[in-house]
Automatic annotation (TrEMBL):
SUPFAM superfamilies: alpha/beta-Hydrolases, P-loop containing nucleoside triphosphate hydrolases, TPR-like
SMART domains: TPR
Domain of life: Eukaryota
InterPro entries assigned: AB_hydrolase_1, AB_hydrolase_fold, NB-ARC, NLR-like, P-loop_NTPase, TPR-like_helical_dom_sf, TPR_rpt
One GO MF term: ADP binding
Domain AB hydrolase-1 residue range list: 91-229
Protein name in UniProt: NB-ARC domain-containing protein
Pfam (any one): Abhydrolase_6
Species, as recorded: Lasiosphaeris hirsuta
Domain NB-ARC positions: 405-563
Length: 1051
């Protein structure tokens, strides 16, 4: 669809033109469900009490348990002990809960037509012929006659058994394979081995760890098993291990942290997870009674380790029918790679060990310089930084990229706002730069999405990432992927400042979690500053890597105060000590107080007296807002008192500085352009006012451009100060009036300007309820909606347009011609969201108003009619869409010309409508003509031209002209990724077309990859309930069915 361009302001939300392929309905064919084996119910951690009686009476379902007489470790291959000397690596498999070595790894054909397949000895030797394949015997029963064991005991026994089996020393490289609970046993065992000197060799010799559906964070279905164990206590059940498998059990979370810190493990760990729910009821002839994901992807995958999906449920993750079994191919390929790389891994570890030994002995080893280190820190060095030596040394050891060469280190500085977290991170950055001159350092604020994206965009520019300035919506992914790229030959430190908001970091309904865009590279390190311990934990940072900061020590606080004051001001030792105690030695409070005293020349005793005489009720309110959960009830936050005093003095002595501070308090916190400030009568006055605010440390200026940051608590305190004095309405109105001038109507030419302004417009509009100027609010909200649409944030844009409607009805009246632009743009956004009926209704409303005002041949009327034709097409009204497009072509050629973009849009719409009525040949002719004209008029890379290429490929596919269609569509996808980005709806649609073309040629593997990519991106961008998302998901199911049918036919 297109949008209007009215006189003031032009209303546009970007190109919206349906691709033909997006509307092809998917037909889901059904097949008979094959009866599966019963298998061992308890093998998947869970049991249903009502089904247990069925289990114990069906001998086929009862798997054998490990007799006590069997040795802990048994060799499956080679069968002859003599041949063991021909092998050089050990593969040790550990089964899951309630299972055994004989049952866990064996596939059984329920029909009895095929023999059982124990893949560890029947299939795996062909992949790793020089491996000795071993199984670990341990009693994992829990439901009856269960041993009183714990997970840690099983892990320690595994380690001891391995050493006993190897004669007291591990000489060979080892690969572990664990199914379900077995993976936890291995994980706990490796941590235990690493931390125990007598067994540490096992950790160093482990060159691979494959976890098949292991619940590293527990299981949601733990509750059922726990209840079952309680009901079955009379038969000897034991809940010890079951209790440990509770979802997000702190012990399991802590163990993941410990495992991730092992120097050698994350890089050789492969995590496999199930894609299908496990239906336990089906196994006992009551399908659907109990089903679900036994182990979710999040629980099955350790952060920083490679992950792989398996097309099966939990009970079949470890049972494979033959060498061509899909799951076996995936698992065995990873085993083969670990097996092939084992010698190189051990050699590399030995080399690193030798290098570190030489380095520690002072051998003079120097680092190899890296090319092009980047310094992207927006602040200068704080020359007044004092103390914190122990914290800085700790950070230098933990946060430098060399701290952990086997992982991407994550470290956090945690503490209350005002303790100096940002300045500690800043000093750390400068010292790392000095100590490691080859290390690039990047600084990113995490206060809001827009600020985060802008910082990533700047990094992308510095790194020279292609397409970073082309308005692509996936810039954060591009930067993440570049920093994550192995072989980039660049060490880096990424500082994420103010990582406090858990919704922002980990997601809500409005945006994708920022944590999704954090890079991972073993040559990199990430340092967070946060006041929120929950955020640090959710970021996967172990407790030992979270550095908690408090106020300065008394000597450090005094040193900081003395740096800014004369001796006469601090001569009163008792008054100075009392003042520092009153300020709780917080660096921000001390800096603000000293700046005020330096300006006014008052003593510390006088400043303390002024603090104690401030408005107690205001202090009480601000203390509530700033209260820390770790403080005793009733304790006030004294930093608020310091700010209130400063606000009053600045207002009295520096009115323009006070006006600026009030203005800034209603904007975003980071990267506020100086151009947004209200213009002063004299430039010198403006510079002086800004200097006063910097002197009080209320704002800090960025180095690379004319912009400022304001501390979030200063911002909040100032707004409270304004409210107490009854000036909120006037202040917010003034801010919006200034933004109405400074925030331009968004278009491609001024994108850099409105992107920088966007977070501040959004922040100011949060207070629009206090503004009575309706036209003012309407104008800014309209521009905001356009900006949100241009950024691909259609849900937010739809909400903004809804509010614009409400405001227009108030001051214009219902169905006023002046609302036509909003009606049209809103309808366009609804089309993007898949709400086609609403979009059609809106467009018909706009057309009626436009015909009444301008007539049928007016450009705006034709534009609205064109978009209505798209709506009809999207709804499946192909004949009606065809008729309307033919009418539009006749009107367009006569009024606008044959080569006008709107006329070409109507030609494209006609081709779409014809194609889906079975008139593919006629549609092809139209698409070729339209493509030729669009290339001539708009250029080959214009979005409309790419749409024509896309639709031509679709209609070629309809006519089974697959080769031409595939060649054309591959080029189209590449161009759309370049110009629009991977996540743009139009790009996703083009990938879908290519997937259909590939599937039609039986290129199932690549087609499946494409379809899965489409479904994943549609879920992420458009939402799982969007009509097109549902269609795309059905497309994938249809392809999988076709693939299976083809395989059956081949067999």
């Amino acid at each position: 669809m297109n949008c209007f361009v009215p006189s003031r302001p032009p209303s546009r939300v970007g190109k919206f033109e349906s691709d033909l392929s997006l509307q092809l309905p998917a037909v889901i064919e059904t097949r008979p469900v094959i009866q599966e084996d019963f298998g061992r119910f308890s093998e998947a951690l869970l049991v249903l009490p009502t089904l247990h009686l069925v289990m114990t009476t069906d001998q086929e379902a009862v798997e054998p348990q490990t007799p006590p007489s069997r040795p802990p470790l048994e060799v499956l291959y080679p069968e002859s002990k003599d041949r063991s000397t021909e092998t050089y690596i050990d593969i040790i498999a550990v089964h899951g809960l309630g299972s055994s070595v004989d049952w866990s790894w064996t596939w059984r054909d329920k029909s009895g037509q095929s023999p059982p397949v124990h893949w560890l000895k029947d299939l795996l030797p062909a992949i790793v012929p020089k491996a000795r394949i071993i199984v670990y015997n341990y009693d994992s029963k829990w439901h009856s006659n269960a041993p009183k064991v714990r997970l840690q005991l099983c892990a320690e026994d595994l380690v001891q058994s391995v050493f006993a089996f190897c004669g007291g020393r591990v000489h060979r490289p080892v690969i572990f394979i664990g199914h379900s609970l077995g993976g936890l046993v291995i994980q706990h065992g490796l941590v235990h081995a690493h931390n125990t000197a007598a067994y540490s060799e096992l950790s160093r010799r482990t060159v691979g760890f494959l976890a098949l559906g292991s619940p590293f964070l527990g299981s949601k279905m733990h509750t059922f098993a726990n209840k079952a164990a309680q009901l079955m206590s009379l038969s000897g059940s034991h809940r010890g291990i079951i209790d440990e498998l509770e979802l997000n059990n702190p012990t399991l979370v802590s163990k993941i942290d410990e495992f991730c810190q092992l120097p050698d493990m994350p890089g050789v760990t492969r995590c496999f997870f199930e894609l299908y729910e496990t239906d336990y009821g089906r196994r006992f002839r009551v399908p659907g009674l109990v089903s679900g994901m036994v182990v979710s992807e999040d629980s099955a995958c350790i952060p920083g380790c490679e992950r792989f999906p398996l097309q099966t449920d939990h009970l079949k993750l470890n049972k494979y029918s033959g060498p061509n079994d899909r799951s076996f191919l995936s698992v065995s390929e990873q085993i083969r790679k670990l097996y092939a790389n084992s010698k190189a891994v051990l050699q590399q570890r030995n080399t690193l060990k030798s290098l570190w030994s030489l380095k520690s002995e002072g051998a003079g080893i120097t680092q190899v310089p890296q090319e092009g280190p980047h310094w992207m820190v927006p602040f200068g060095r704080n020359e007044g930084f004092v103390g914190r030596k122990a914290v800085i040394e700790q950070l230098l050891e933990m946060a430098s990229p060399d701290a952990n060469t086997d992982n991407c280190q994550r470290t956090a500085i945690e503490g209350l706002g005002g303790v100096g977290k940002t300045h500690i991170a800043l000093e750390t950055a400068f010292q790392i730069r000095d100590r490691y001159p080859d290390c690039s350092i990047f600084w990113v604020p995490a206060v809001d999405v827009a600020g985060f994206e802008n910082a990533y965009r700047d990094i992308g520019r510095r790194l020279g990432i292609e397409g970073i300035d082309e308005g692509r919506p996936d810039i954060t992914e591009l930067v993440r992927d570049e920093l994550s790229r192995e072989g980039a030959n660049m060490k880096w430190l990424l500082i994420i400042d103010n990582a406090d908001d858990t919704e922002l970091l980990f997601g809500n309904t409005k945006h994708i979690p920022l944590s999704e865009y954090l890079p991972f590279n073993k040559s990199g390190s990430i340092l967070f500053t946060t006041r929120n311990h929950e955020a640090a934990v959710k970021l996967g940072i172990p407790e030992k890597s979270i550095i908690k900061t408090t106020g300065l020590s008394s000597p450090e606080a005094l040193e900081m105060l003395q740096m800014s004051l004369d001796e006469d001001q601090i001569r009163d030792t008792e008054g100075t000590t009392n003042l520092l105690n009153f300020l709780t030695n917080l660096p921000l409070a001390i800096k603000q107080a000293s700046a005020f005293m330096a300006t006014t020349r008052i003593t510390t005793a006088r400043y303390l007296d002024m603090c104690q005489q401030s408005d107690k009720s205001t202090i009480k309110m601000l203390s509530k807002d700033f209260k820390d959960l770790g403080r005793y009830k009733g304790t006030k936050n004294p930093i608020a008192a310091t700010w209130l005093i400063s606000f009053d003095i600045i207002t009295r002595d520096h009115p323009l500085a006070s006006q600026y501070l009030q203005f800034l308090s209603f904007l975003g916190e980071k990267d506020i352009p100086a151009a947004l400030l209200p213009p002063a009568e004299d430039e010198i006055d403006a510079e002086e006012a800004i200097g006063i605010l910097k002197a009080y440390a209320f704002i800090s200026q960025r180095q690379e451009r004319q912009s400022f940051d304001i501390h979030r608590l200063v911002r909040l305190a100032m707004r409270n100060w304004i409210e107490e004095r009854g000036g909120r309405e006037a202040c917010v109105t003034g801010v919006l009036k200034r933004l109405d001038v400074a925030f331009p109507f968004p278009n491609a030419d001024n994108r850099d300007i409105w992107l920088v302004c966007l977070p501040h417009v959004q922040a100011a509009l949060e207070f629009r309820e206090f503004v009575t100027d309706i036209p003012l609010k309407r104008g800014i909200l309209f521009n905001l909606a356009v900006a949100q649409s241009d950024s691909g944030k259609f849900r937010e844009a739809e909400q903004s347009y809804q509010e614009v409607f409400r405001l227009e009805e108030i001051f214009l009246g219902k169905d006023h011609p002046g609302s036509t632009h909003t009606v049209h743009n809103h309808a366009t956004v609804l089309g993007y969201l898949g709400r086609y009926e609403e979009a059609e209704e809106r467009h018909r409303k706009a057309i009626a108003i436009l015909i009444k005002e301008h007539g049928k041949e007016h450009h705006d009327t034709l534009l609205a009619m064109n978009n209505l034709a798209v709506d009809l097409f999207n709804r499946g009204c192909y004949k009606e869409s065809e008729e309307l497009n033919r009418e539009l072509i006749e009107l367009g050629e006569r009024v606008l010309g044959k080569e006008d973009s709107l006329t070409l849009d109507s030609n494209n719409g006609l081709g779409n409508a014809l194609a889906l009525q079975g008139k593919a040949e006629e549609a092809e002719v139209i698409f070729r003509q339209t493509l030729k004209l669009r290339e001539k008029v708009l250029g080959k890379e214009h979005s409309a031209t790419l749409t024509s290429r896309n639709n031509l490929a679709s209609v070629l596919k309809m006519q089974k002209k697959y080769k031409e269609a595939e060649q054309l569509q591959r080029q189209t996808v590449k161009l759309k990724e370049k110009t629009l980005g991977r996540e743009h709806p139009d790009t996703i649609g083009s990938v879908s077309v290519l997937a259909h073309v590939l599937g039609a040629q039986d290129k199932f593997k690549e087609a499946e990859q494409m379809h899965r990519r489409v479904v994943e991106l549609m879920d992420k961008v458009m939402g799982p309930e969007h009509p097109l998302t549902i269609i795309r998901r059905n497309d994938l199911k249809k392809l999988l069915y076709d693939k299976a049918a083809a395989e059956v036919a081949t067999d």
